[in-house]
TrEMBL record:
<dbReference type="InterPro" id="IPR035940">
    <property type="entry name" value="CAP_sf"/>
</dbReference>
<protein>
    <recommendedName>
        <fullName>SCP domain-containing protein</fullName>
    </recommendedName>
</protein>
<dbReference type="InterPro" id="IPR014044">
    <property type="entry name" value="CAP_dom"/>
</dbReference>
<feature type="domain" description="SCP">
    <location>
        <begin position="55"/>
        <end position="166"/>
    </location>
</feature>
<dbReference type="Pfam" id="PF00188">
    <property type="entry name" value="CAP"/>
</dbReference>
Length: 168
């Protein structure tokens, strides 16, 4: 039986979220129609923290015999939007993941999209180690992906929120 992109994304999402305070593994189905008029305004480069964590993940992948993933600006755009959403709500969440995955697929030709999220880690290393300690997050980090982007933003208290999107 062949599963659709949204179904595969849902299955992977249910296994992939992280917070040092909670292990939220939910998926919130959205009834919002996909916006076809989204204007992509994104950066072709990450900020320093994002680039550092991205490099950590790629170095790890290479150390276990996997390919490096390429930074991709469309996924960076959607990761940033989702990180802002989590900060606004004060939660770790995969809300509207299906919509993000579909938009990324439409704009990049992605066949499969996955997501890791986290919040409230004091350092990039803490977040990276927590993702590796979580089977679902590790599966995404070690997955058959070619492209990725990470958004890391701070809330008004200085707490870090993370969204990493992967695709192939």
């Amino acid at each position: 039986m062949k599963l659709s992109l949204p179904t595969l994304a849902l299955i992977l999402t249910l296994l992939s979220s992280c917070s040092k305070y909670e292990n939220f593994a939910g998926y919130e189905k959205s009834n919002d129609a996909l916006s076809t008029s989204v204007t992509l305004v994104s950066s072709d480069t990450h900020r320093s923290m994002e680039a550092e964590l991205f490099e950590m993940i790629n170095n790890y992948r290479v150390s276990i015999g996997l390919n490096e993933m390429e930074f991709e600006s469309t996924t960076y755009y959607y990761a940033g939007i989702h990180t802002n959403y989590m900060i606004e709500k004060g939660i770790t969440s995969h809300a509207k993941f299906g919509e993000r995955a579909e938009n990324i697929s439409k704009r990049t030709g992605a066949e499969f999209v996955a997501e890791n999220v986290a919040r409230n880690y004091d350092t990039l290393e803490d977040a990276f180690d927590a993702w590796l300690d979580s089977p679902g997050h590790r599966k995404n980090i070690e997955g058959d992906y070619t492209h990725s982007a990470i958004s890391i933003k701070l809330n008004s208290n200085g707490d870090m929120y993370f969204t990493q999107l992967f695709y192939r």
